[in-house]
């Protein structure tokens, strides 16, 4: 029926389907987790557990990804949901940048890809932590503009949220007062007790909330899914129609080969669980510095990930974010 | 309702790929739990959508619930979103499945794993192309495993490469080119001709899938064919020949190559890919 399609298009299609097969389960999982966060994580819980100090909060965000076995596709909706739940953007972004790299699955696949050696997994993890701390600090202390897009349709819903936010603010003010009065060392115990008493009053019923989170996951899927598909289409077209082989011949100096591999990481849009294998095959040609750049940058910025980000966050912010990531990665890897 | 159908179709697409065996044209067999995971999750969400659709009294509008907003407000936006989401289902089920071939090699390029041993003349190699290999070749389990496997093949003078051991043997040959020099091997692959100036380098490659087709690459050897052999891109052939070391100017290093004595046309295998095996 579709035999008239050109061969190159069908090859692009094969690459497209394979990216989709690889990314879809993680996007679906990301949507489910986002739904659970939506229904179960309350603003006051966040504020109580997260360190008040901005820098410590960035560090917490950078490390929490160890617990999320996810690649970069599922991470954008989760981070966006975090911000909606009152987690400061600098912490949410620190999480978004490191989670696809520092989780056990990705560390392990990097270890395997580089002939069972710890050098590259360690360089990769250290690089991602450095980037997340630089970006988090920039967002916490220097970037003052809004980062979340306000969509036109959101206006009426924002009213809903407004009252929500007011209530939350009241709860917070109360909590803060309480915290001042109490011994800091007791705080975790106290907050745990506060959560257990706060939860039933806030949520009518556990199963209602669970249902709500599932419905939210469906919404999230239809919201994010189209960006994944569009991104996968662009990435597969690049692989077939753009002569990336020309890139392999560039890179005569250390700096230029780092930049070439940043570009390659962006174009290929590989899953962070698989990119180490490509990285290791390029090692002989480009050397360890540019391979480290490839491994750190790829999971943070690539075509499909960028499209998903552009849906949630403002363009001006994304441009600066990417600029800062590039500068940091280059500054880090040039010493290797 | 459209949403329910779409989610159910995703479940069906994954089941179809799984049951028809077409999944191995897209992803390494070792990762097929991913398709199963998608199947389960898409099915769950389809059920959720069905129930919430029934509950909402069949309203056409996807209903808003408190706190959450989405940008699928305008009908045309919703149309585009649904069309995009429907595309993979059409593409996955109805389009003919093809395998990657020489056209992709010329677009994506190819590289060789360059080992400590094969980095030849230091005069010819820039510092840059000669990374400190001790960094990533630590003398531990990896070496033990590779040495163990190498021993199995070193005892043989003639090595026959099959689908199952393809990637393992290619890795060994590139890692220990000197040990394999002079040995006779036989393998099947497709021809890729790389024009370099006036000359043409001929390679015999297979696409190897590490994780999925998107990250697949070609693995194989530069082949010197017997005089007056005519081949063209994408011809499937079986060659028998001797491994030798040779300086390869494009990468400024020595690589193992194959001097072919015999070349026979081969049938295109039913599965053109070889897979990286994690069990060894």
TrEMBL record, chain A:
The protein's location, in the record's own words, is: Cell membrane
Q: What is its main location?
A: membrane
Q: Does the keyword Transmembrane helix apply?
A: yes
Topologically, how does it sit relative to the membrane?
Multi-pass membrane protein
Q: Which residues cross the membrane?
A: 15-43, 55-80, 92-114, 121-143, 224-242, 254-270, 276-297, 317-335
Q: Which GO terms describe its cellular component?
A: plasma membrane
Q: Could you tell me the keywords of this UniProt record?
A: Cell membrane, Membrane, Transmembrane, Transmembrane helix
- What family does the database annotate? Belongs to the UPF0718 family.
Tell me the protein's name.
Permease
From TrEMBL, chain B:
Extent of the signal sequence: none
Q: Which domain of life is it from?
A: Bacteria
Ranges of residues in domain DUF1980? 2-110, 136-276
Q: Which Pfam families match?
A: DUF1980, DUF1980_C
InterPro entries reported for this sequence:
DUF1980 (IPR015402), DUF1980_C (IPR048447), DUF1980_N (IPR048493), UPF0703_membrane_permease (IPR052955)
PANTHER family reported in the protein's UniProt record = UPF0703 PROTEIN YCGQ (PTHR40047)
Its protein name is Putative membrane protein
């Amino acid at each position: 029926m579709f035999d008239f399609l050109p061969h190159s298009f069908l090859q692009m299609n094969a690459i497209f389907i394979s990216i989709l097969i690889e990314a879809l389960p993680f996007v679906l999982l990301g949507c489910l987790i986002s739904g659970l966060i939506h229904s179960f994580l309350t603003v006051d819980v966040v504020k109580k557990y997260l360190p008040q100090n901005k820098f410590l909060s960035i560090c917490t965000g950078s490390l929490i990804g160890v617990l999320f076995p996810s690649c970069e596709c599922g991470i954008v909706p989760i981070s966006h949901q975090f911000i909606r739940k009152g987690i400061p953007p600098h912490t949410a972004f620190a999480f978004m940048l490191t989670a696809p790299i520092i989780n056990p699955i990705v560390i392990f696949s990097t270890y395997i890809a580089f002939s069972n050696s710890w050098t590259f997994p360690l360089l990769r993890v250290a690089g991602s932590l450095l980037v997340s701390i630089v970006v988090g600090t920039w967002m916490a202390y220097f970037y003052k503009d809004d980062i979340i897009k306000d969509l036109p349709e959101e206006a009426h819903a924002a009213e809903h949220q407004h009252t929500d936010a007011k209530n939350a603010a009241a709860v917070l003010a109360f909590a803060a007062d309480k915290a001042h009065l109490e011994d800091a060392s007791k705080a975790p115990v106290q907050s745990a007790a506060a959560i257990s008493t706060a939860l039933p009053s806030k949520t009518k019923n556990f199963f209602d909330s669970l249902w709500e989170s599932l419905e939210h996951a469906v919404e999230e899927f239809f919201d994010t899914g189209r960006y994944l598909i569009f991104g996968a289409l662009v990435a597969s077209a690049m692989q077939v129609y753009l002569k990336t082989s020309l890139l392999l011949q560039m890179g005569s100096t250390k700096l230029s080969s780092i930049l070439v591999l940043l570009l390659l990481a962006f174009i290929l849009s590989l899953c962070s669980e698989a990119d180490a294998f490509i990285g290791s095959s390029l090692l002989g040609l480009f050397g360890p510095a540019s391979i480290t750049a490839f491994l750190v940058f790829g999971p943070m910025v690539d075509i499909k990930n960028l499209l998903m980000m552009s849906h949630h966050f403002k363009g001006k912010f994304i441009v600066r974010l990417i600029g800062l990531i590039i500068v940091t990665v280059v500054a880090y890897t040039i010493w290797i | 309702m459209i949403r329910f159908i779409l989610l159910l179709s995703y479940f069906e697409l994954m089941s179809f790929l799984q049951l028809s065996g077409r999944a191995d044209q897209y992803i390494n067999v070792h990762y097929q739990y991913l398709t199963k995971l998608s199947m389960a999750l898409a099915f769950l969400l389809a059920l959720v959508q069905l129930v919430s659709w029934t509950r909402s009294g069949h309203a056409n509008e996807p209903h808003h619930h408190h706190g959450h907003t989405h940008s699928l407000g305008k009908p045309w936006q919703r149309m585009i979103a649904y069309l995009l989401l429907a595309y993979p289902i059409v593409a996955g089920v109805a389009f003919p499945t093809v395998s990657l071939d020489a056209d992709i090699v010329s677009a994506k390029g190819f590289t060789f794993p360059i080992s400590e041993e094969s980095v030849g003349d230091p005069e010819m190699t820039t510092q840059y192309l000669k990374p400190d290999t001790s960094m990533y070749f630590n003398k531990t389990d990896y070496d033990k495993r590779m040495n163990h496997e190498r021993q199995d093949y070193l005892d043989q003078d003639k090595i026959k490469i099959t689908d199952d051991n393809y990637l393992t043997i290619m890795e060994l040959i590139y890692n220990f080119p000197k040990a394999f020099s002079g040995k006779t091997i036989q393998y099947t692959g497709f021809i890729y001709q790389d024009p370099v100036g006036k000359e043409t380098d001929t390679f015999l490659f297979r696409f190897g899938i590490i994780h999925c087709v998107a990250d697949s690459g070609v693995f194989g050897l530069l082949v010197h064919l017997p005089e007056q052999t005519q081949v063209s891109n994408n011809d499937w052939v079986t060659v028998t020949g001797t491994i030798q070391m040779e300086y390869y100017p494009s990468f400024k290093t020595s690589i193992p190559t194959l001097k072919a004595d015999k070349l026979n046309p081969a049938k295109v295998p039913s599965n053109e890919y070889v897979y990286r095996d994690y069990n060894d």
